[in-house]
Design a protein that fits this description.
This protein is α+β, with helices and mostly antiparallel strands. Helices cover 19% and strands 44% of the residues. The protein has a four-stranded mixed sheet, with helices on one face.
Length: 54
């Protein structure tokens, strides 16, 4: 997965740029997760950790 700083803002920008978002953001005690598809249809996981030290 890829660590990101602001998952919701990044997903909004990616969607605006035409990237396909997969499902809804899921939140856990250790962070938020979201998924996108690359141009070949591969699923990519994005992770915004709760604690930036993770």
């Amino acid at each position: 997965n890829y660590r990101v700083h602001d998952l919701h803002a990044l997903l909004a920008q990616l969607k605006k740029d035409g990237v396909e978002i997969v499902g809804e953001v899921q939140e856990f005690e250790y962070g938020k997760f979201g998924w996108i598809l690359d141009p070949d249809g591969n699923k990519i996981e994005l992770w915004e950790p709760i604690d930036e030290k993770l």
